[in-house]
């Protein structure tokens, strides 16, 4: 488990040329995993925590042009602020918004993208968040 990594493991990973992660990044990953465990204890899962910010339903956007797709959103800014209060690092609003896009919390495909209708269809189906 990453949260239980000790000094020896951190040093080993940060000195591994194949991985190429600075020691500060490895420490950040370990520290963030400890923060995740606290979130899990409070909310049941990181998923529950994240989805609570969008009322457990994906935000569906209908952008026509790439210039309209934001790098951050008010929800991402709120999540980022809360994560920082909880001790997380490297969780600015741009990173959080990117995570929200990747995890399906927000649908930012352009309306003429071949994936837009599939993603919207999945987002609009009746489902219960787990």
Automatic annotation (TrEMBL):
Keywords: Metal-binding, Zinc
GO biological process, one term: base-excision repair
Alphabetized InterPro entries for the sequence: Adenine_glyco, DNA_glycosylase
UniProt entry tagged with the keyword Metal-binding: yes
Binding site for Zn(2+): 109, 113
Gene3D superfamilies found in the cross-reference section: Hypothetical protein, domain 2
GO terms of molecular function: DNA-3-methyladenine glycosylase activity; metal ion binding
Pfam families, sorted: Adenine_glyco (PF03352)
SUPFAM superfamilies the record matches: DNA-glycosylase
Name of this chain's protein: DNA-3-methyladenine glycosylase I
Originating organism: Ficus carica (Common fig)
């Amino acid at each position: 488990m990453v949260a239980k990594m000790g000094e020896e493991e951190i040093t080993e990973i940060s000195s591994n040329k194949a991985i190429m992660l600075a020691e500060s990044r490895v420490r950040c990953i370990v520290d963030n995993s400890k923060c995740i465990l606290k979130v899990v204890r409070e909310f049941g899962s990181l998923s529950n925590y994240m989805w609570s910010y969008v009322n457990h339903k994906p935000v569906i956007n209908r952008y026509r042009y790439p210039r309209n797709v934001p790098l951050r959103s008010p929800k991402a800014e709120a999540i980022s602020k809360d994560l920082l209060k909880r001790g997380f690092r490297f969780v600015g609003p741009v990173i959080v918004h990117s995570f929200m896009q990747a995890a399906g919390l927000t649908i930012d495909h352009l309306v003429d993208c071949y994936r837009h209708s599939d993603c919207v269809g999945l987002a609009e189906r009746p489902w219960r968040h787990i």
